[in-house]
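INFO batch 0412 | record 1 of 1 | parsing
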Amino acid sequence: MVTRSMTAYYQMGQDAPDYPKVSFYQLSQDTIVDDSLVNEHVDVQGNHREVIRTIGAASTVLLKNSNSTLPLSATAYRTLAVGWGSGSTNFPYIIGPFPAIQDRVHLENPQAVVEAVLSDYSPQAQAIARQDDVCIVFANADSGEGYITVDGNVGDRQNLTLWHDGDELIKNVTSECNNTIVVLHTVGPVIMEAWVDNPNVTAILYAGLPGQETGAAIVDILFGLVNPSGRLVQTIAKQRSDYGADVLYSSDMEVPQIVYSEELLIDYRWFDSRDIVPRFEFGFGLSYTEFEYSKLSVKPIASVPSRRTVELEKPKNAPGGFASLYEPAMNVTFSIRNSGKYPGNEVSQLYLGFPPAAGEPPKVLRGFERTFITNGSSEIVTILLNNKEISIWDVVTQAWVVPTGVFTVMIGQSSRIIKLTTTFTR
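INFO prediction complete | emitting tokens
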């Protein structure tokens, strides 16, 4: 940790005499504390507004889009944009969903009626939903560090449900509106079985915590200014018990000891190994366009070092292991064609299946590429596998070893949607 911190310190030249001195005080937002100037409130935002809006839209995951509900045509201001804890901060401003949607709709159709119910429990929600062509429900679930308790949650969430009776709000709106879009601002998976298959829920966006440009980023996705290309970084299960691990909330031990019985079977690896069908799998995310995969090729780049070769290279040690571990071993190429109506980014994923004797999970993510492809065009995607990525850790010899046998290369759009497969032998 010290090495990591000090590397950045010297890389940025913070040891130079002319490097600007720190001009803020993390314990207070006041300018003066105890008669001393502690905060100069220096504006260092630059083009942060554009960057955070771009990231917010790019990271939004489209989970459902029945009958091409999205993108919308323009014929709950309350939002969640950040968690809490030592890594959080205070926004200089925040653009909420309601004004952003209102501005966008009125830009195209000044006469359109855009209404919002800002209370989670207001009976007006159903009354307004009954009259609207499109309803958008925002629901959330937050977490942070355990130094404060929020709604009974001591840092970690107590459950995997939506806060503020989000499930009930969605149920009430969908009972009156047959074109309901659900936008989720959550810190991780939530169980959505109560409404996910409801035909009146026509689209679902998983927007995470997008920051101060949250409303603008959502508008970009809703109205097709940005084609969604976000992918889930965790599996969304159908029930909490489907997961292979849980939070330890209490213990009789003064220093609780956690046994990692799931071993290597983390997230999608657990679901694969136990044949559990998730609601939305790791790596999943829809697009407004369609992509076709073909022409998978896997070729060796150089001879893979044996265990003996690695041991002889000890003088060439590098952070994370011997230098030879990070040299390319396999060259994987394939073609993706955008066969749909819109240009967009496709996030192709490479999963590797090790020989059975290696004792590894059924598949492990070993690479991904985000590729922009115009509609009607094709692109060749290349993903390199280095020596470490085709190796396993041998606890006996305390070394990275390439197992002998048949490896399976799987190219897909998620951990469950595999488009291309081939093998190579070591």
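INFO post-check: The two ends are 36 Å apart (CA to CA).
INFO record closed
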